[in-house]
């Protein structure tokens, strides 16, 4: 064997390229229907998130950066969204959109990355608990084909991007149980938690809940309690620094504004059920139901025979499954804690973490069987389950992408408003070079994070008010962007006239009329903080709107991103050392 062959063999062994290529090609298989059909999938959450990323895209394109205020997306309304909802990932995905300049290419790339990262993180977790490459690879395939991971590609549900990193959270939890200098690393733990916070806050809440359970068990189990406590405190402090751009704006905006929350649901109607049918938003599906029942039954019958890690993982998994289902008294929670109707919305969201924990537990159980014939049967069964899930996801991708060429190209029209119902016009709008055109044709009266003047002035029908203020209006105004300011220009046809402008205002918003501060008597607000401006003279008028944070500025933001950059470069350096 020559030197070149030895180098290639070394790279394969260190980097495990077999695993890499397996996950690479399976991810490709899952998005292949969309690649072949070249069709965009417009699910229930597509328009909301496309507006978010379009705003970041336009900031990169124009250089007019505004961290808080939305100057390009969401009808150029000036509302605050990305600063409260995954700010870092919004800029990353906006950057991808800027590079490809195509909704189709953007959607395929992000869907592919979601599948790939999910497979890789589940593989890392499986190998961490000592599973063989075969079991680890099968777990990766099971996770990639699961309902929650596929929901971004099929529905543009953003929680998929949080769930794809949850195996790393479980991995950190297992490190806590081991509690030694090599496994409980402050920077590593802080980066995992911070990364999920930067992507999806609710996913982070679920992740922190699971980590807290692992921490309590670790404290009870280990002798080095003080050392473990100090490491977790250190990770927590570092995480606060790494997520200052998330909790800082949230603290400022929520404390000084009366925000509209996401729409309310009936929690008891939004829980998951074990089923004998295919997996969907409210049903686990036959195959996964069987796997869950097997592990739960084994846990109940042979608890003492299981390894310590398996007992803890499975126990937490059962807990997460219970609170995601109607076994938990969600009807009582509906009555006693009504704020969860808009904060949590869907108890089913806990099922993503339950899936990771219970599948990991079952693979630990089956891999510990000493009988080789039983092992082979178990491996075959797991592989069949994984293949079934992958084929089902691929089939769903095919069916969803085929909708694009139908009379209604939108796969989910819930609460959607169409400027035209012409399917050809919709397809052309989203395929064209002007990325804004599709967002003008398809709109949703979504009021998340919009502010009201006060609690008493909040409307009971915010979606109707949003439609009235922003979507169904024909006000003759012109909107332009200069630096971080949104400029609204209109013509007043008579003296002392009042004009309602399609923008929204927050506590720290700065408004200037024709370059001068507005007097209180010149402005009134409706239930969505949309201003009506009284002008003294007729003719051209310009209102400037920008958000001025009390303590968040570009230097703090660049400081947070600089720390992220240093830590990521160090992680890359350590990774390269390992594969040498």
A few lines on this structure:
The protein has 23 helices and twelve strands. The protein has helices at residues 3-15, 17-37, 46-62, 87-100, 103-128, 133-144, 147-155, 159-163, 166-178, 186-199, 201-221, 225-242, 244-256, 286-301, 308-324, 330-336, 340-343, 351-367, 372-402, 423-431, 435-441, 462-471, 554-578; strands at 258-259, 417-418, 442-443, 451-452, 477-482, 485-492, 497-500, 509-513, 516-517, 523-525, 531-535, 539-547.
Question: How would you explain this protein's 3D organization?
Answer:
- The protein is α+β, with helices and mostly antiparallel strands and 580 residues long.
- The chain contains 23 helices and 12 strands.
- The strands form 4 sheets. It has a 5-stranded antiparallel sheet with strand order 5-6-12-8-9, with no helix packed on it. It has a 3-stranded antiparallel sheet with strand order 7-11-10, with no helix packed on it. Strands 1-4 form a two-stranded antiparallel ribbon.
- It is globular.
